[in-house]
Design brief:
5-stranded mixed sheet; binds manganese (II) ion; globular; 280 residues; Fumarylacetoacetate hydrolase, domain 2
Length: 280
């Protein structure tokens, strides 16, 4: 199942070139009162689509795609999780800024502000354009079930699905969570592909083109820490909740974008998303 959020907070299932608008299914979500639970209500209840009614079909070409996760509790992100990107980061002062670049085992998993999340239709709005602003394309894992101290062998049972993630980054000396958290610096889309459609997240080609030129292309088989290992490690530090997002790290080939650029990100078995870059 491919679940899309689009236009004015509508939701539906993507089939062929259209979104089957099933927004009425949201009425089945459990009623909630303050204080709201720390989870994304839709991701925690994806079964509402099973008997949902389609009110119309919206052509994908006419839909403004939003992040498939509306309210992620946290955005976890793996730093330098591809060996060739580690080598590239160590070589390029424009990436490492004199700071030690560590393997993920030493650096740990970092967090991005949830307010940085947008969908592809909203685009990336750059701030501090006098500095280098880089694209990082990544497989994004969306957690579907609450869990803590999850064993790697069981980890994929806790995944609701996958989408493409862009971990946009201002290069510079500050802490990475600060440089990666401006509004719109986490793009999730084009939709959520449920986990049953991707039995092995460790065998997906990840690619991004900027203005038609391929910049990054790698297979998730090259991840230093695999998706199950990342989930196990993250959950040994904090509880994972439905709707939490895990960005799995970017491969080699990161590079700058500027206002006016168009990024086209693709992940095998998920799809592609076109994201415009503008100035905030
Ligand atoms: Mn990244």
């Amino acid at each position: 199942m491919r679940i899309a959020r689009f236009d004015n907070n509508r939701v539906g299932i993507v089939q062929g070139g259209g979104i089957h608008d099933m927004t009425g299914a949201l009425e089945q979500l459990p009623a909630q009162r303050y204080p709201y639970p720390r989870r994304d209500a839709l991701i925690a209840n994806l079964e509402i689509f099973e008997n949902a009614t389609t009110v119309r079909v919206v052509p994908l070409s006419r839909a403004e795609l939003l992040s498939p996760v509306a309210n992620p509790g946290k955005i976890m992100a793996a730093p330098v999780n591809y060996k060739k990107h580690l080598e590239e980061a160590l070589k390029d002062k424009g990436i490492h800024h004199g700071k030690l670049v560590d393997e993920i085992h030493k650096a740990g998993i970092f967090l991005k502000a949830t307010s940085s999340v947008v969908g592809p239709g909203e685009g990336v709005r750059l701030v501090h354009t006098e500095r280098r602003n880089d694209h990082e394309v990544e497989l994004a894992v969306v957690i579907g079930k609450e869990g803590r101290n999850i064993a790697a062998d069981d980890a994929l049972d806790f995944v609701a699905g996958y989408c493409i993630g862009l971990d946009m980054t201002i290069r510079g000396p500050e802490d990475r969570s600060f440089r990666k958290s401006p509004d719109s610096y986490t793009v999730l889309g084009p939709w959520l592909v449920t986990a049953d459609e991707i039995p092995d997240p460790g065998a997906l080609e990840v690619k991004i083109e900027v203005n038609g030129v391929v910049k990054q292309r790698e297979n998730t088989a090259e991840l230093i820490l695999s998706v199950p290992q990342l989930i196990a490690w993250a959950s040994s530090f904090y509880t994972l909740y439905p709707g939490d997002v895990l960005l799995t790290g970017t491969p080699q080939g990161v590079g700058p974008v500027k206002p006016g650029d168009v990024m086209l990100a693709t992940i095998e078995r998920i799809g592609e998303m076109r994201v415009a870059v503008t100035q905030a």
